[in-house]
Amino acid sequence: MSVTLRAEGCDTRIAGSAEEALPLVSTFRPRLIMLDLVLPFMSGLSFAQQLKGDPATRNIVIVAVSAYNGYGVERAATEVGCALFLRKPVDPVVFPQLLTTYLGGVE
Question: Distances in Å between the alpha carbon of 4 and those of 30, 43, 73, 97?
Fold first, then answer.
């Protein structure tokens, strides 16, 4: 996903955990976060909930990504504030179109 985003002209950062992402979010201020729901330590759902509960980060668009399928996973992601749920593998052709939908284009 990072390669696709960079090819579309986006400035990206990668974090391996929610704990690693927290300081990045406070300094980088992304417009969108691609969030895997399965992370070490803090879950992606907990991380999304924390971001949406903070006035400084609540407007960041969160796209949940997971290899897990099922309505329950998608519902849980949207309930904590994720704008979209994508199943892995993410289609690299459709992905930029989704960004346009949720961000009004990529920058």
Answer: 16, 24, 25, 11
The band of 107, judged by pLDDT with boundaries at 50, 70 and 90, is very low
Q: What is the pLDDT of residues 47-103, one digit of tens each?
A: 999 999 999 999 999 999 999 877 899 999 999 999 999 998 888 888 888 877 876
Cα separation, 42 vs 62, whole angstroms: 16
| Helix count and strand count (H, E) for the chain | 5, 3
Q: Which domains does the chain have, with CATH numbers?
A: 2-102 (3.40.50.2300)
Residue type, 32: L
CB 10 within 8 A of CB 106: yes
Instruction: For strands 61-66 and 32-36, give the pairing.
Output: parallel
pTM of the model: 0.88
Measured CA to CA, the distance from residue 40 to residue 48 in angstroms comes to 14
Q: Which helix (H) or strand (E) holds 75?
A: helix 71-79
